[in-house]
Amino acid sequence: MRLLVYSHDAYGLGNIRRMLAICEHLLGEIEDLSILLVSGSPMLQGFRLPKGLDYIKLPCLNRGEAGKVVVKYLDTDVTETVKLRSDLILSAIANYKPDLVMVDKKPYGLQDELKASLNYIKHNLPQTKLVLLLRDILDTPQKTIMEWQDRHYYEAIEKFYDLLLIVGMPEVFDFCKKYHFSPNIAQKIHYCGYIRRQPRTNNINEIHQELKLSPEEKLVLITPGGGQDGYHLLNTYLDALALLPQEHELKSLVLCGPEMSTPRKQALFQKAEKYPQVQMKEFTDDLMSYIVASDTIISMAGYNTVCEILSAAKPALIVPRVQPSQEQLLRAARMNRLGLFQVIHPHNLTPELLMDSLLNLLSTDELAPSIQLDMNALPRISHYINRLFSIKESESKVSYIYPKNSPKLLLASQ
Fold first, then answer.
1. Which residues pair with 252 in a beta bridge?
2. pLDDT of res. 12
3. What are the tens digits of pLDDT across the range 391-410?
4. pLDDT single digits (tens) 42-64
5. Long-range contacts, 89-94 (Cβ 8 Å, 24+)
């Protein structure tokens, strides 16, 4: 079976990290599956790719000032670059002839670059199934509804998509209700829960030895995700270390993120030289292992990082991004009310408040959330994708496909 995955990635690492985790799980669960990933992520080659997956790298677009899309590297304008990307995607679909296409977040793709491909599938590959994958929160309801109406996304879902998979829970954010989905669209929706992440190594001592962590020290991990807008958080943390009481023995691992500008990165590395207990890194493709090895995490509220923190059940201090989208602010506020982690609004972020909050968090014995989050998104996505493959095979009068390790999963209603 052939799966084509579209992940536009105009900003940060979130989309590509999420889609790679899903692809890796699907390859382990569905027999004879091949995946072609189409993405504009500039960091795609920096990840370990599972066997059975290949990719087409699209020219990079990026989010400029006020959220405006710009060309990242090429000396071309946005219209030319979007046309080039659209043609590459259409060529990939026409030649690869996927049995199923999974689209991340935007029904028509970035700058509507999927429109030609969706129409091609409808008229030339009518048996190809289409799935739209949506994270738990997109933006404020008012902004999202207006954007989806203006871009005709509701109509696109009704016309083209067989299934909508939401990697979240209605108890955290009622996606269908908040974004005014029609009954026809609601019938296509399945909440899958959040994505549980596993560390590459279960040997915490390996991480502690790598970081030269003594038995008396506690490890604090600070990560701003991709890092493009993470300078303020990291700079404030380094300033806060000057306020650390002498009796506290902390070691800090600061990840700048691969998309932080070189001048800002250099400034942080230079400032960190004052603190021998601080280790600086640019990027890791195994953030989960470092989270598991840490005592506390300070981060922004990107979907993937939040899932990794929740998977490890670690105390965390979250400073969400608030512009140009309020997705992270909404996620942080809801999960804070559920007792899942502490939150500081970035407008209130000071070295003093950050250090006081960190010390309070380090003295907390265990978390006491008011909700048990469903972290089974990966097996649920596998189930629904496999079911679509089975429907396609049934339509073609070919035998059903079953997951490798859980043949009874297809009988589940959710």
1. 220, 278
2. 62
3. 877 776 543 344 444 433 33
4. 878 778 899 999 999 999 998 77
5. 89/6, 89/38, 89/58, 89/113, 89/114, 89/116, 89/117, 90/116, 90/117, 90/120, 92/4, 92/36, 92/38, 92/56, 93/4, 93/117, 93/120, 93/121, 93/125, 94/120, 94/124
pLDDT of residue 403: 45
- Count the helix, strand and coil residues of the chain and give each as a percent rounded to the nearest 5: 45, 15, 40
| d(C-alpha 312, C-alpha 295), whole Å | 10
Of the candidates 360, 361, 353, 341, which has an alpha carbon nearest to the alpha carbon of residue 236?
A: 353
Please name the residues in contact with 143: beta carbons below 8 A apart, sequence gap of 6 or more. Answer: 325, 326
Residue 100's nearest CA partner among 157, 166, 162 is 162
What pLDDT is recorded for position 117?
A: 98
The tens digit of pLDDT for each residue in 70-98 reads 998 999 999 999 999 999 999 999 999 99
The domains found in the chain, sorted by start residue, are 2-195+375-411 (3.40.50.2000), 204-362 (3.40.50.2000)
CA 13 to CA 44: how far, in whole Å? 9
CA 366 from chain center: how many Å?
Answer: 26
**Cα angle vertex 284, ends 314, 278, to 5°?**
70
Confidence of residue 365 (pLDDT cuts 50, 70, 90): low
**Pairing verdict, β 316-318 and 2-7:** unpaired
| Residues 141 and 328 sit within 8 Å (Cβ to Cβ) | no
Distance (Å) of CA 90 to CA 55, 56, 79, 106, 155: 14, 12, 16, 16, 21
How far is 411 from 414, CA to CA, in rounded Å?
A: 9
